[in-house]
Write a structure and sequence with these properties.
Strand content: 25-35%
Largest sheet: 4 strands, antiparallel
Helix content: 40-55%
Shape: rod-shaped
Strand order of the largest sheet: 1-2-4-3
Distance between the termini: 112 Å
Order of helices and strands: HHHEEHEE
CATH class of the largest domain: Alpha Beta
Length: 174
């Protein structure tokens, strides 16, 4: 019995079937290769995400560093130390000096120190106290008000007692 009587395919169709089978196998092999390469990309995607996050963090640090550099340039353009609080007190309290006055120096990083001045006065005008605090904060480098205690008086606009603590950072060497 010949194949032609019971096979649905003709012998002339055999190469075509072989080609279709080969094409289907090639497509399956391609899909398998793509799936395999996609599974290998997962670590790369994670690495790219980490690198992108690191880059953003580095850019943030660069911006922060630029702000610090700007602040240092501004501070270095100022005199080495804030103007003496004693002279600010004389000019704002019409020649009067505080009743008590203490100065403490604290060394900082090499070339820098912190100066802290604590003083108290009695029977002073509230306006003069505010003018003095504004002048101290406006100085370059500025005096920073750390503590302030005000005790009112029975007289209008007068404080019976003022206690303050100011600090400033100054250079000890240029």
């Amino acid at each position: 019995m010949s194949c032609a009587s019971h096979c649905p395919m003709k012998t002339s169709d055999t190469p075509l079937v072989a080609l279709r089978t080969a094409a289907a196998l090639a497509i399956l092999a391609g899909l398998a290769a793509n799936l395999h390469s996609l599974s290998g990309l997962r670590p790369q995607v994670d690495l790219w995400r980490r690198k992108t996050a690191e880059r953003q963090e580095l850019q943030s640090l660069v911006r922060q560093s630029a702000r610090f550099d700007s602040a240092i340039r501004i501070h270095e353009s100022w005199p080495s130390a804030a103007p003496p609080l004693e002279s600010l007190a004389k000019s704002n309290f019409t020649g009067r000096l505080p009743a008590s006055w203490t100065v403490a120096l604290q060394p900082g990083i090499p070339g820098w120190q912190s100066r802290r001045v604590v003083f108290s006065m009695t029977d002073v005008s509230a306006d003069n106290v505010l003018r003095f605090m504004t002048a101290a904060a406006s100085a370059r480098p500025p005096w920073v008000l750390e503590e302030c205690a005000l005790q009112s008086s029975s007289a209008s606009g007068t404080l019976s007692r003022v206690e303050t603590a100011f600090s400033s950072v100054e250079r000890t060497e240029r």
